[in-house]
Amino acid sequence: PEEEEDEDEEEEDEEEDAMDPQLLGAAGGSLRVTGPLEAVRLAPFHGQVVPAGSSSYRVIVHVDLDCFYAQVEMISHPELKGKPLGVQQKYLVVTCNYEARKLGVKKLMSVRDAKEKCPQLVLVNGEDLTRYREMSYKVTELLEEFSPVVERLGFDENFVDVTQMVEKRLHQLQSDDYSVLTVSGHVYNNQSVNLNDVLHLRLLIGSQIAAEMREAIFNQLGLTGCAGVASNKLLSKLVSGTFKPNQQTVLMPESSQDLIGSLDHIKQMPGIGYKTTQRLESLGINSVHDLQTFSPEILEKELGISVAQRIQKLSFGEDNSPVTPSGPPQSFSEEDSFKKCSSEVEAKKKIEELLASLLNRVCKDGRKPHTIRLIIRRFSSDRHVNRESRQCPIPSHVIQKLGTGNYDVMTPMVDIIMKLFRNMVNVKMPFHLTLLSVCFSNLKSLPTSKKGSIEFYLTPSSSTTSHSGKRTYKLKDTHMEE
DNA sequence: TGGGGTTAT
DNA sequence: ATAACCC
């Protein structure tokens, strides 16, 4: 149903969605059947569906691949399977497979510590993200076949809103096959599932969809991962991590408080990052319970109304943020870190490398970036607050040369970037950089204007005589200038 | 700590 | 342009 009304979240949308108790009674299986059916009212919300009241009935799947980079490396190099494997960037082991974890290697451990813990550790360099990125998008595209509403989080996680799929299956369930009514994977807290509770039913169907997603990812791409199924993004993400590698878990609403209560610190709450944690701690807030019971007024004064209200809702397991389809990337960037870069010539060389890779990527994408940015990190003792950037529009004559490999686009681009560089760094003074990054953003699709093509002057029309199956058109009003 | 990404201000 | 968040 493609309703129009967007602001009807409160009351009075009379689209009742009751199930036939008789059908459910017969469905039993090994699962207990109790109580009367609940009717749930539906209302549209940003193209997705939310409950008419305030308790959410969305079904969200969070898919989280196991040690993603390591898995991709083991597919590329099958001889590494079974060995403890770490993926190295500079002097860090950024991730590792489960064999390595058993031997004490942790994510983001230094190579020194990792080798000390585990001398047999095999290391592969993972500084070039190309294959990871490509595999990552294959996973997202596969999930988009289930439902187009897929939001990426990093390279190895995706949220999928399967509410509509679940609704469809709920209605198709009617006549025949009750054997499908069994939960797939774990149920958080081993909570009993009530098939007469339509919210439980939806989540159960969600767990089956999640299992199908993981199967498809394994069969088609050879990757394993976890999944979490719940009524919002926060809970689905938290619950996906409860059984770890290659397993899935569904959260029934009654266990929400247990799940968020299982966090031992607010820092573990997705959405509460480093800075907010610092400020919360200074207020004496350390646990989820502390945050739940803290004065909302004081919290708002301390963090601003937006952050305060959002994170306090999170502390109760409430998260109304929609699954926002990611679509194609908003930006492309390449970066390189190093011990020291202290001359303009040196910087220019590194920038040329970054730019060459970026031009390749942007060319394959097909869209044209209209903005370029240079990011630097200066050497300094304090680690956290130190990246500076300058950006500028890319001149249109340079944009046009993009993709058409013939002309030299490097030279004008490098010239632009070096201007940005000199704007940030006084090259007449000594400097010490530890990172350079180049980013293309403001991506626009190619001259989509059908201007010049006949289609530009025609508009599709259904109002004309024949229903012969041929498309009909009307002449459009068109200003001819420009 | 790496090499990426996103949105809000 | 920066600051916060995510992996």
Automatic annotation (TrEMBL):
Residues 60-273 form the UmuC domain. Its EC number is 2.7.7.7. One of its GO terms (cellular component) is nucleus. It catalyses: DNA(n) + a 2'-deoxyribonucleoside 5'-triphosphate = DNA(n+1) + diphosphate. Transmembrane segments: none annotated. Residues 321-332 have a biased composition (Polar residues). Interacts with POLH. Interacts with REV1. Interacts with ubiquitin. This is DNA polymerase iota. The gene is POLI. The chain holds residues 8 to 489 of 753 of the full protein.
